[in-house]
Structures are given as structure tokens and as C-alpha cells.
Amino acid sequence: MRVFISHKSEDAELAKHYAEELSELSFDYYLDEYDIHIKNSSDRGTLINKEIKKSTDLLVIVTENTKKSWWVPFEIGLSTAANNRIVTIVHDGAPELPSFLRKWPVIDTDEKYQTYLSELEINNRKLIVESKQFSKSMESIFKSNNSADIFHSNLINKFSRL
Length: 162
Fold this sequence. Notes:
Blueprint: E1 2-6, H1 12-24, E2 28-30, H2 36-39, H3 44-53, E3 57-62, H4 71-81, E4 85-90, E5 106-107, H5 110-134, H6 138-142, H7 145-160
Parallel strand pairs: 1-2, 1-3, 3-4, 4-5
Helix pairs in contact: 5-7
């Protein structure tokens, strides 16, 4: 299980904050701010694609800065194609979300964020059990068409009860 953190470069400190929280909970993550190869690459798109394919989740950070980004929509598109689980976290001052982002869970409160982290933990435990019981690779379990949809539905359902 690996979370790719998508953000506008002006929101790097905010992205680092989420990376630290994921790390404290022992989740693997990818954040381009810590990747020296991507910063020096002339083919950033290919490197991003490789990192998204290694990931199971995309955490999209949306602020006022995001609407000026070319990379965030690119990462969302690649994650959709990779069948990754996608969750958007909205911050004060963020613009109205485009309709395509409303397809997936939207986090706009701390309570929803904590619920999201809990769901990640639950799914991570299930993944470990399933991979041991059925000898499946983590990638094949998470990349199945249904797993992302089931995760999204469960999270949206839990959000609606908050």
C-alpha cells in the first residue's frame, strides 16, 4: 500500500505535513518534494507515471493554488487509469471542485480525514491477511477493478454519517 500525494508546488509544506502523518502511521507514501531524480529530470511525466503505478492511492490536496496546476489533473488522470483509490482533501480558500473530483470521496473536515486514515489502516490489515491467505501480490489485490470502487463507496458512506 502506497499513497501518492498530489499537490501544487506552492503547497509543498502542506503536502509534507500529510506525508509526516502518513509516515507516523507507518504508511508508505510518495512525495515529489523528497525525490531528487524528479526535480532534475527533463521527463517528469514518465517519472510521475512510474511512481503512480507503484502506488495504490492518490491523496489530492486542493487549495486556491491548485487551479493553476497542470500536474495535479495529470496525476489524477494517471491514477484513474491505474485504478488507484483517489481521495481529495480540500482546504480553506480552495476553489469549487470540478465535477470529476466529486466522483471520489472529498475530505473537508478533520473528522473525515481521521475516518480516511482509519479506512487506510483497516484496508492495510485486510490486505496483509488476504495476501497471506491467498498468496496474492499486494498490487494485484489493490489494482482489481472493484477494490478502488468498494473503498470509495465505503468511505463516502462513512462520510455521509458524519
